[in-house]
TrEMBL record:
It comes from Pontibacter mucosus. PANTHER family: ACETYLTRANSFERASE, UDP-N-ACETYLBACILLOSAMINE N-ACETYLTRANSFERASE. This is UDP-perosamine 4-acetyltransferase. The keyword Heme does not apply. The keyword Transferase applies.
Length: 213
């Protein structure tokens, strides 16, 4: 069976690390697509034109950072490709338990553990050595850093950023477009568009509003 030709978008840290997750038996990596002209001695970097010129090429889209995570849906949608062209990539050293569901265009890196019945929705990135426990739900377009622990029955909303080293207690929900800062311990429900930091985590946005008023 011929290999699938694969493009990664964009040429960023997530994209470079995604190369370690790709099966060379399944995929023929063509290069990166990026909106900013960049030079690399290691990889071919193309404009978006290649996506229209070669419609048989599959795509793994992994944009996003603490500064831009809320725009992930807009950025990925702007590629204008059919959903059938997106692929999900799971590192061979990730552990996927029984009943786990992984959506389209997801990147699951080395050492990640997804336990029983966890749901990973579409366009999610999970960096190395993070654990998503039983029955947790990770919403569309969410980014999860490395060494994160998300306890059982927790629901993470859409377009969130969960910073590396953070811990989230069982059975709570985190609202859409929230940022959980590095190393934070989240012990209570979190409203949407929050900016949580510390141990226990508190919402910096709410603190700023209190100071203003």
């Amino acid at each position: 069976m011929p290999k699938k030709k694969l493009i990664i978008f964009p040429f960023n840290g997530n994209g470079i690390e995604a190369l370690d997750c790709i099966s060379t038996d399944e995929y023929d990596f063509i290069g990166f697509v990026d909106d900013i002209r960049k030079e690399s001695s290691h990889y071919d970097i193309y404009t978006r034109d290649i996506l229209n010129q070669y419609r048989e090429v599959y795509v793994l889209a992994v944009p996003g950072s603490p500064a831009s995570f809320r725009k992930r849906q807009e950025i990925i949608s702007s590629l204008g490709i059919d959903s059938s062209r997106f692929v999900s990539v799971i590192h061979p050293r990730a552990s996927v338990g029984r009943g786990v569901q992984v959506g389209m265009n997801c990147l699951i890196m080395a050492g990640v553990v997804l336990t029983s019945n966890a749901q990973i929705k579409d366009h999610v990135c999970i960096l190395p050595n993070s654990v998503v426990h039983h029955d947790a739900v990770i919403g569309d377009y969410t980014l999860i850093g490395s060494n994160v622990v998300i306890a059982g029955g927790t629901t993470i909303g859409k377009n969130c950023y969960i910073g590396s080293g953070s811990n989230i207690i069982n059975g709570i929900s985190i609202g859409d477009a929230s940022l959980i800062g590095l190393g934070s311990n989240v012990l209570n429900h979190v409203k949407g568009n929050a900016k949580m930091v510390g141990n226990p985590a508190r919402d910096l946005n709410a603190h700023i509003k209190q100071e203003v008023f």
